[in-house]
Each structure stands twice: as structure tokens, then as C-alpha cells.
Design a protein that fits this description.
By secondary structure, the chain is α+β, with helices and mostly antiparallel strands. Helices cover 25% and strands 22% of the residues. The chain contains 3 helices and 6 strands; from the N terminus they run βαββαβαββ. A 6-stranded mixed sheet has the order 1-6-5-4-2-3.
Length: 162
């Protein structure tokens, strides 16, 4: 067997100061949204901010439930809000920020597998890739130009449509 190599591309920045203004504003919006998380069971704060081509920024956070499997991640609450409020708008960028009490919050957290699948569907619907901007409340920011770099070999509409 000849092993194949997969390249994952991303950009890494020491802080949001190195970002372009629109990207910086979006990660700041995600950081602010994280502080509103409804997270009584995990106390893990996740915020998301989505920039649309109508210049709106839609924000959201994780919403937990006493029946744990009903919890919804910030990425999915926010994408659902953006798609339902602005069904024809194109997504230009999506930022996610996390925060936890009594912990260093200077590193990005990566979206869970379910959210990667959800974002991938949204990117297909969008008909154009959009950057995923990940950061803590401070410090390093990583940018992936497409969810496909976080979810290679993805399952999508192309697998189902004739
Ligand atoms: N969470 C998110 O909001 N996004 C992710 O990608 C991973 C996890 C939330 C779900 C739950 O409210 C808390 O973080 C702990 O898992």
C-alpha cells in the first residue's frame, strides 16, 4: 500500500491585531456572544458570529438542556439563525470563540464533528467557501479558508443527488 498525503491549510496569527478589520470584528463579536451562553451544565461558553453579504453580523451561542443530548452548539444555533433570518444571503465568514472559567482562554477550540458536518452543508448551500476563524477570548487565532480543511472527505449533497 502506498500511503497518500493530505495537506490541511490554515493560517495562524499570534493575536487578533494581525487580522484584517472584518475578521477582527467578527472574532470580537463571537467573543462577546460567548459570554451570553446558556450553559448551566458544562459552564463551557461558546460564541459564534457570522458575516453575511448584506453586511449583517448574526451572533449566537451554545444552548444546553437538562436532557443533555438536546444541547445545541453555538455554530448550529448561529447558522440556523442566519439561515432563517436571511435565507438568501451569502455567508462571507464565520468566527467561533470559547471561554471557560478558571482556565486559560487564549487558544482556539475546534468545532465538534457534528458542527463540522453542519457547516459543510451550509458551505455547499452557499456555493462558495467561507473562512472559519477560531480563537479563545485572547491570543492565537487560526483561520481555515474552508470547512473542507477541517472536514476532509466530507459527506454531502453530491453523494445523494443524481
Ligand atoms: N459546544 C459548542 O457550542 N460547539 C462545539 O463545537 C463544541 C461544543 C458546546 C456544547 C456544550 O454546550 C458545551 O460546548 C460543552 O460541550
Amino acid at each position: 500500500m502506498t500511503p497518500q498525503t493530505l495537506t490541511i491549510q490554515y493560517a495562524s496569527f499570534a493575536s487578533d491585531d494581525a487580522l484584517q478589520l472584518a475578521e477582527k470584528n467578527l472574532i470580537i463579536a463571537a467573543r462577546t456572544a460567548a459570554l451570553q451562553a446558556y450553559n448551566p451544565y458544562s459552564q463551557f461558553f461558546v460564541g459564534c458570529a457570522i458575516l453575511l453579504d448584506n453586511q449583517q453580523i448574526v451572533t449566537g451561542f451554545n444552548i444546553e438542556n437538562a436532557a443533555y443530548s438536546v444541547c445545541i452548539c453555538a455554530e448550529r444555533t448561529t447558522l440556523s439563525a442566519a439561515l432563517t433570518q436571511y435565507p438568501t444571503a451569502k455567508i462571507l465568514a464565520l468566527a467561533v470563540s470559547t471561554y471557560q472559567h478558571n482556565q486559560a482562554n487564549d487558544q482556539p477550540t475546534f468545532p465538534c464533528g457534528v458542527c463540522r458536518q453542519f457547516i459543510s452543508e451550509c458551505e455547499d448551500k452557499n456555493e462558495a467557501p467561507f473562512p472559519i476563524i477560531l480563537g479563545g477570548q485572547t491570543g492565537k487565532v487560526q483561520i481555515f479558508d474552508s470547512i473542507k480543511h477541517l472536514l476532509p472527505f466530507s459527506f454531502g449533497k453530491a453523494n445523494l443527488l443524481p
